[in-house]
Write a structure and sequence with these properties.
Number of domains: 2
Mean pLDDT: 87
Number of strands: 0
CATH class of the largest domain: Mainly Alpha
Helix content: 55-70%
Low-confidence stretches: none
Radius of gyration: 19 Å
Strand content: under 5%
CATH superfamily of the largest domain: Tetracycline Repressor, domain 2
CATH architecture of the largest domain: Orthogonal Bundle
Shape: elongated
Largest sheet: none
Order of helices and strands: HHHHHHHHHH
Length: 204
C-alpha cells in the first residue's frame, strides 16, 4: 500500500525506510510512553531512522505525534463511528464497550489509551498536545450526545435520563477500561465491568 505521507529523500538517493512502518512504530512508542515519556532517541530507534530523516519526513516530535494520533484514530478507534449506527441507545453503548474491550484485550497492541496516556501526563510545555487530544475527542462526544438525545426523543431512554450526563458516564467507563488494562487488569475483569455496565443500563 502506498504511503499517505510524502517524505523527501536525500538528493539522488531513494528513501531508506518504510514510512508507514516507521509511523506505526512511533505510534507504539507514544502509546506505551505517552507524549512526554517518548524520547527522540527511543522514537528513532524504534522507527529505524536517523533524527535528520525523522525531521525531514515527519517534522518535529509534536508533528510526529499528531500523525501517530491520526493513525491511531483511523485504525484503532474506527469502532466508535460504526457504534453510532446501532438501532438502539443500548446497542450504541454495547458496541462502544465491546469495541473498547476488544482493543484492550488485544495481545498485539499496548494496553491503555493513547489519548488518555498523553493528555494526563502532559506538563506545561506540552499543553498544546493536551489541548489537541481534548479537541479531537469533542466531535465524537458531541455525536454520542446527539445520538442519545435522539434516542430519548424516540422513547428509547427514560424521560429522567439526561443525554449529556449519560454520554459522559459511558466515556468514563471506556476510559476506565483503558486505565485498568494499563495497570494489569485481566480480560475477565474488564469483561465483567462491561457486562455490569450493560446490566444496569437505563431501559425504556
Amino acid at each position: 500500500m502506498e504511503s499517505a505521507l510524502a517524505c523527501p529523500a536525500p538528493r539522488g538517493r531513494p528513501r531508506e525506510f518504510d514510512v508507514d512502518a516507521a509511523l506505526a512504530s512511533a505510534l507504539r512508542v507514544f502509546w506505551l510512553r505517552g507524549y512526554e515519556g517518548a524520547s527522540l532517541t527511543e522514537l528513532t530507534e524504534a522507527m529505524g531512522v536517523t533524527r535528520p530523516s525523522l525531521y525531514a519526513c515527519f517534522g518535529n516530535k509534536e508533528a510526529l505525534f499528531r500523525k501517530a494520533l491520526d493513525l491511531y484514530e483511523r485504525e484503532k478507534l474506527a469502532y466508535i463511528e460504526t457504534a453510532l449506527e446501532a438501532d438502539t441507545v443500548r446497542g450504541v453503548a454495547e458496541r462502544l464497550l465491546r469495541g473498547a474491550l476488544k482493543q484492550q484485550s488485544s495481545s498485539c497492541d499496548p494496553k491503555g489509551c493513547l489519548g488518555v496516556t498523553s493528555s494526563l501526563a502532559c506538563g506545561p510545555e506540552a499543553e498544546s498536545i493536551k489541548a489537541e487530544v481534548i479537541a479531537r475527542r469533542a466531535p465524537a462526544h458531541a455525536a454520542l450526545i446527539a445520538r442519545f438525545e435522539r434516542g430519548k426523543a424516540e422513547g428509547d431512554l427514560p424521560a429522567t435520563i439526561e443525554p449529556h450526563a449519560l454520554a459522559s458516564y459511558l466515556y468514563a467507563i471506556m476510559q476506565g477500561l483503558s486505565v485498568q488494562a494499563s495497570t494489569g487488569a485481566s480480560c475477565a475483569e474488564l469483561g465483567s465491568l462491561v457486562e455490569t455496565t450493560l446490566a444496569i443500563w437505563p431501559g425504556r
